[in-house]
TrEMBL record:
It holds the Pfam family DSPc. This is Dual specificity protein phosphatase 19. It is an enzyme of class 3 (hydrolase). Belongs to the protein-tyrosine phosphatase family. Non-receptor class dual specificity subfamily. It comes from Eleutherodactylus coqui. The lineage of its organism: Eukaryota, Metazoa, Chordata, Craniata, Vertebrata. Residues 65-206 form the Tyrosine-protein phosphatase domain. Residues 133-187 form the Tyrosine specific protein phosphatases domain.
Amino acid sequence: MHSLGDEIKGFSKNRLKKQCTRVTTLSGKRIIETWKDSLVHVVDDPDQQDGPTCGYVQDLSMDLQIGVVKPWLLLGSQDVAQDQDILKKYKVTHILNVAYGVENVFPDEFTYKKLSILDLPETDITSYFPECFDFIEEARLQNGAVLVHCNAGVSRAPAIIIAYLIHSEKLNFARAFSIVKNARPSVCPNPGFMEQLHKYQDCSRRQTDVIHEKTD
């Protein structure tokens, strides 16, 4: 039987596709991160412009691929959130916007929650989990469908959904990651988020053990 560590090792080495993203750090420096085999290689962006901006991942290509994690739980990029035809096709009722610098486009058509989260390894994404989980549960209990999106649909939004599965279905990280990765193959949370998700799994497992001890 494979241990959790073996499962995670297997996912990171064999299933994570190479990813290349442009990131603007909090200091305004622009870098390019290239992912391969769970390693990240960082170089300065040759197209770097003068003047500071806030940190976020830039994705200038159109990406209208929706990851169907569950029929009512969807994952995508900001492009999906701005395409009303696709949103209607998937019967979206709620939109959780965790992108940076992306406004809600159809406020009269959908129920929104907006949290501006920076796609940086040092961002404490776990601090956003309770609000996100409550909103996702609200959509589920209302028999709706919720789209969770960030800018590129690669790091922040997948991390939120992975954590939600760990929380709501008591899955381990490896299983939750596999479900989300299968739904949207491009997902690749940044290394800081990956570390936080592993710790969140351990914390959730301890809490479950405590509850079981109290009920025995």
